[in-house]
Amino acid sequence: MLALAYDAGLRREELCSLRSDDIDPPRRTLRVGAESTKGRRERVVPYSASRSELLFRYLQHERTLGQKRGSLFLSESRRNYREPISIWSWSKIVLELARRAQVERFSTHTLRHLCLTDLARAGWDIHENNGVSST
Fold first, then answer.
1. Could you tell me the end-to-end alpha-carbon distance of the chain, in angstroms, rounded to an integer?
2. Closest among 26, 15, 3, 8 to 130, alpha carbons compared
3. Nearest-CA neighbor of 33 among 54, 60, 10?
4. Taking 70 as the threshold, does the pLDDT of residue 131 lie above it?
5. What are phi and psi of 30, to 5 degrees?
6. Beta carbons of 130 and 28 less than 8 angstroms apart
7. Neighbours of 12 (CB within 10 A)
8. Which of 3, 61, 78, 124 fits as disulfide partner to 119, beta carbons 3.0 to 4.6 Å?
9. Are 65 and 82 in contact (CB under 8 A)?
10. Is 112 contained in some domain?
11. Domain span including residue 40
12. Is the residue at 130 inside a domain?
């Protein structure tokens, strides 16, 4: 989830709303549905080849949870087993990772800012309609 959040510059709502049929592996893209975006506009965003391998492994693991099609990221906790990971759970996971890594001021949105900063430094006009909106 961390890798895709960074690669695609996803907000937590967008990441947690992804479904398995939103993935286009041959093109290495994700469809982000309008219902989960801030501007209520669907967009297609890329992810890297290294993330493709991680995603493939995750999908293989997800099949062991008994899920065929539906939400992409599922909880493995006893309390919410096989339920979609909520934005609140995702926030708690990221905050705990940041605490363990002793990184202050790190949130789910930090990954989006890092992605957009890296794209801007690489010369992309992040204000263009190129799949990743700047807010």
1. 20
2. 8
3. 10
4. no
5. -120, 140
6. no
7. 23
8. 124
9. yes
10. yes
11. 2-121
12. no
